[in-house]
């Protein structure tokens, strides 16, 4: 086994560290984001959100506000253009919050009830804050707890799996863990708030946006407003973070409505606080894990019951119980995802949806089982490695979990570890180390790309990719350069314009894999068209690709990336403060296109795992139904001083099916990270924490 950092045995641009193509533009401020691109005659919309958690809007007192300086319009359910939110988009039915201002019902605190449009952003804000909305309030219920009345198992194959007789295998087990784990509501509040500008341009709807997929947003807007798809153009050149939250949301819809009513460009930017109710979030989870093992630590029974919440208006499931389906072999293997519907905003995808909270529960339970078996936690995992997918029975495309543990254990110094809890002391600090496994599915979705040989010797790639801060544009530049066999300086990659044609979104850790595949095919095609020494016409020579057929023909397999997470913590015995001293993550996540940005992605995920373990917790007030302190002062995230030296690296694991060898690195970094820290806290203190975050008041 080798580490790839130095050994990726391919020449060319892919596999070499490359700073971001647009890095200079970003650090000098030349790169403009959706909320700051200038437009002539621009008007500004300000959102007004409900202050009640359930009920009806009785009236909106728009007259006094319409008389305020600069105010152009107040849109509300009584006067807004009609839309049709009953459609199916690229990722299913939309959250009904996009069908905004269509009726008087209020299903949660923070539901959009009006948009005030004015000449300036300040005028719009002042008027929005002055707008009086009268409600008929109804009783609400926002209290999430395990197994509470109304909990059900949604329809769908992803909700439940069952192999073997669970109860008999549990009864036959020498060692049993039966524990409940909880994770709180968590928010992905990207640095760049959601913003969109809409205008009508010669009969076409033109949107400048911040999103994870311009095809996705354009397609949904066309459906919502019943427009011909070619008459909608969405662009999203620079995006300051997304993490699952940046698809179609209420603000783009409201910007289009206002631009239509006023016949001028309208921009709507969310405030930080508005983001906490309008963009989705990670549902809290309550999870029960039951593991049964024989005296040698071989799993006889694996049972994972996950529960999350959704709104009353839309069914979204945080599929925490999906995590174990590819992880461990067991005679009996059961998983189920349950749901309860409350008067809260609809949750959505947040980095490693399902896997992030699911791995906390399962990888903590594995650690508990290792203790009961008197076995090293890595050895326990090794003993339960499956030959094929434990639930699917399908072969793995590749599975290098143990290689990650081998390399990680070596570099972390795991061999010297004394397994006894609570025995290492350094002054007022108790010290401990922990480990956990990580995995994320490897997926790919059809995309189209165009590559043009220009008359001046440059090559232009056009693809509706999104660079949400990951370095996707740079990765695609390296991929295109190698495919064309030219230096990166001769490649120009243009992204994030729905006019370039359909492509996968930046999501599911499958953006670069999906786009890279399409770019490879188009580049190969172009090379065949190019005649050596031949002239390029002034308009250039273009080749196009569509990966639908090749992806549709892939065999059924269990495709995953894997990883091993390690953490060392120090716990203050007087205050309960937990300091993470170091983290190491070793991943088997395909061929690494750009080590510089891939490492940043992995470290970013691990940092979020630290934040999840120790800090993040959105608190919902049962009295109002709203969040307490919904901003980055009230919602604690790890700050710089909380984050120690974090190392991320990888083992050689090129995907054999992907033309570049990519698996994807967007989400796996967070998976298992919180469990590694919780396991380290247990090792340090002897106290097992099954509820996140591990706050000082809960520690000792
Ligand atoms: Mo990501 S949560 O797949 O956008």
TrEMBL record:
InterPro entries membership: Ald_Oxase/Xan_DH_a/b, Ald_Oxase/Xan_DH_a/b_sf, Ald_Oxase/xanthine_DH-like, AldOxase/xan_DH_MoCoBD1, AldOxase/xan_DH_MoCoBD2, AldOxase/xan_DH_Mopterin-bd_sf
Pfam families for this protein: Ald_Xan_dh_C, MoCoBD_1, MoCoBD_2
Origin superkingdom: Bacteria
SMART domains per record: Ald_Xan_dh_C
UniProt key word Oxidoreductase: yes
Domain Aldehyde oxidase/xanthine dehydrogenase a/b hammerhead: 28-139
UniProt keyword terms in alphabetical order: Molybdenum, Oxidoreductase
Keyword Oxidoreductase: yes
Gene3D superfamilies (UniProt xref): Aldehyde oxidase/xanthine dehydrogenase, a/b hammerhead, Aldehyde oxidase/xanthine dehydrogenase, molybdopterin binding domain
Gene Ontology MF term list: iron ion binding; oxidoreductase activity
Protein name: Oxidoreductase
């Amino acid at each position: 086994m080798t580490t790839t950092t130095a050994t990726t045995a391919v020449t060319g641009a892919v596999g070499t560290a490359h700073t971001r193509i647009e890095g200079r533009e970003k650090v000098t401020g030349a790169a403009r984001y959706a909320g700051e691109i200038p437009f002539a005659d621009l008007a500004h919309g300000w959102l007004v959100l409900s202050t009640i958690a359930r009920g009806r809007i009785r009236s909106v007192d728009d007259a006094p506000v319409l008389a305020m300086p600069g105010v152009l319009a107040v849109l509300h359910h009584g006067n807004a253009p009609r839309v049709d939110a009953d459609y199916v988009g690229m990722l299913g039915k939309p959250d009904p919050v996009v069908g905004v201002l269509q009726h008087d019902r209020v299903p949660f605190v923070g539901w959009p009830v009006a948009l005030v449009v004015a000449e300036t952003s300040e005028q719009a804000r002042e008027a929005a804050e002055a707008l009086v909305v009268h409600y008929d309030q109804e009783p609400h219920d926002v209290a999430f707890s395990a197994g509470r009345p109304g909990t059900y198992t949604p329809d769908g194959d992803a909700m439940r799996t069952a192999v073997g007789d669970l109860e008999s295998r549990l009864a036959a087990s020498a060692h049993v863990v039966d524990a409940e784990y909880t994770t709180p509501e968590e928010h992905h509040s990207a640095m760049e708030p959601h913003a969109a500008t809409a205008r009508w341009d010669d009969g076409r709807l033109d949107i400048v946006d911040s999103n994870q997929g311009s095809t996705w947003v354009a397609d949904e807007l066309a459906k919502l407003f019943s427009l011909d798809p070619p008459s909608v153009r969405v662009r999203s050149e620079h995006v300051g973070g997304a993490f699952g939250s940046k698809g179609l949301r209420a603000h783009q819809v409201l910007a289009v409505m206002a631009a239509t009513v006023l016949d001028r460009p309208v921009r709507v930017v969310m405030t930080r606080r508005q983001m906490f109710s309008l963009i989705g979030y990670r549902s809290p989870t309550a999870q029960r894990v039951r593991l049964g093992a024989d005296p040698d630590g071989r799993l006889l029974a694996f049972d994972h019951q996950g529960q999350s919440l959704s709104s009353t208006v839309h069914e979204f499931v945080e599929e925490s119980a999906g995590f174990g389906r590819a992880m461990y072999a067991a005679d009996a293997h059961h998983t189920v995802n349950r749901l309860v519907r409350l008067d809260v905003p609809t949750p959505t995808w947040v980095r490693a949806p399902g896997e992030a909270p699911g791995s906390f529960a399962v990888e903590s339970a594995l650690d508990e089982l290792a203790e009961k078996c008197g076995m090293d936690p890595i050895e326990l995992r090794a003993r339960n490695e499956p030959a094929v997918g434990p639930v699917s029975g399908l072969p793995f495309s590749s599975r290098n979990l143990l290689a990650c543990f081998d390399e990680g254990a070596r570099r972390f110094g795991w061999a010297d570890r004394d397994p006894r809890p609570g025995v290492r002391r350094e002054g007022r600090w108790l010290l401990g180390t922990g480990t956990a496994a990580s995995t994320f599915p490897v997926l790919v979705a059809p995309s189209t790309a165009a590559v043009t040989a220009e008359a001046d010797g440059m090559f232009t790639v056009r693809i509706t990719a999104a660079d949400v801060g990951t370095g996707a544009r740079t990765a695609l530049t390296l991929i295109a350069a190698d495919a064309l066999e030219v230096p990166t300086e001769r490649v120009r990659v243009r992204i994030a314009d729905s006019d370039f044609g359909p492509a996968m979104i930046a999501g599911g850790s499958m953006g670069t894999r999906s786009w890279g595949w399409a770019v490879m095919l188009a580049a190969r095609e172009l090379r065949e068209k190019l005649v050596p020494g031949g002239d390029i016409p002034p308009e250039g020579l273009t080749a196009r690709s569509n990966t639908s057929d090749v992806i549709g023909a892939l065999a059924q397999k269990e495709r995953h990336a894997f990883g091993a997470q390690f953490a060392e913590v120090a716990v203050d015995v007087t205050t309960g403060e937990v300091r993470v001293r170091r983290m190491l993550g070793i991943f088997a996540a395909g061929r690494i296109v750009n080590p510089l940005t891939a490492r940043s992605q992995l470290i970013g995920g691990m940092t979020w795992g630290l934040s999840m373990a120790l800090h993040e917790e959105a608190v919902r007030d049962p009295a109002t139904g709203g969040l307490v302190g919904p901003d980055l002062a009230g919602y604690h995230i790890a700050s710089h001083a909380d984050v120690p030296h974090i190392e991320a690296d990888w083992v050689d694991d090129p995907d054999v099916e992907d033309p570049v060898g990519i698996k994807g690195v967007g989400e796996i970094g967070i998976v298992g990270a919180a469990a590694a820290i919780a396991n380290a806290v247990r090792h340090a203190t002897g106290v097992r924490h099954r509820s996140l975050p591990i706050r000082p008041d809960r520690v000792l």
